[in-house]
């Protein structure tokens, strides 16, 4: 898969076994293929393309993904039964009944000779759902034992199983998209360990502006699109005259504060929270999460790096596994869909 932070193509070789009624799983190989600069530029510009050029980019990305998979399975001597590809999100507008992830599954299947499933979100959107978040599917079936699950990707999202056994999940606020945007202004692709942010000062005025977009008390918590991120936090930050380092510190602090405030609306105290996604490597952000979380008796725990970096890839592999077995994802209560769906479009290889 490729996330909104545009760090690269994530690939994980996963195995699943549900023959005993309990899911057993493993990740035996994993790799991140950084996007060349020209691909970063292409994907950033994709939302403004006309229809013909977007379809051309869909095919080109499918070829890119297929070639990288083909190289990787040859190098590692892997024999996959199936490829599950999320692709790269260009549009996510469930309230307008559509979502668009590019990276042609037909091209992936043709290049690799392996059956491919993609387009996981559209079925839920067609059923009136938000098409996101999918993380609770992995949290429910693969990572039991925690009180909550936080993903610090391009956008921060959270999932929790409530006392009535129903799952609740939502996007909280922008995360790595904005932190990386600021780091790039200092000539870096990202803020390693949050060291730049750690040297800055929080500006309370900017922090309050950022918080106001995504208040914890809001009854409506739709999934956040890249466009929403740009129209809110990126716009405020871009027009600010404050020092970039201070803006990094401010954004990091605000992310940690919003996350704790949002979680406190569903969990009042004593919560162990599993943290994954690239932001879990940000020591400054993790420190802020735990220092603010101490007020609520929340603890934010980072698992092994393999899980941190490839949990979303594991999730996509698991969605492919469920789709292949014709099993619904079981998240209508989270996404707001009128019925559960079996997501995914199947592309048969030669």
Q: Secondary structure elements and their pairing?
A:
Elements: E1 8-17, E2 24-34, H1 37-45, H2 51-76, E3 83-84, E4 88-93, E5 98-102, H3 105-112, E6 116-118, H4 122-126, H5 135-142, E7 148-152, E8 155-161, E9 167-174, H6 176-184, H7 195-198, H8 204-213, H9 226-239, H10 244-264, E10 271-276, H11 283-293, E11 298-301, H12 305-324, H13 332-335, E12 345-347
Parallel strand pairs: 3-6, 7-10, 10-11
Antiparallel strand pairs: 1-2, 4-5, 6-12, 7-8, 8-9
- CATH architectural group of the largest domain: 2-Layer Sandwich
Order of helices and strands: EEHHEEEHEHHEEEHHHHHEHEHHE
Q: Give the biggest beta sheet.
A: 5 strands, mixed
State the shape: globular
Give the number of DSSP strands: 12
CATH superfamily of the largest domain: ATPase, nucleotide binding domain
**What is the tally of helical segments?**
13
- CATH domain class name of the largest domain: Alpha Beta
Query: What is the fold named in CATH at topology level of the largest domain?
Result: Nucleotidyltransferase, domain 5
- Roughly what fraction of the amino acids lie in strands? 15-25%
Question: What value does the average pLDDT take?
Answer: 93
Strand order of the main beta sheet, please?
Answer: 9-8-7-10-11
Low-confidence residue ranges: none
Q: How many domains make up the 3D coordinates? A: 2
Q: Kindly, what is the distance between the CA atoms of the first and last residues, rounded to a whole number of angstroms?
A: 23 Å
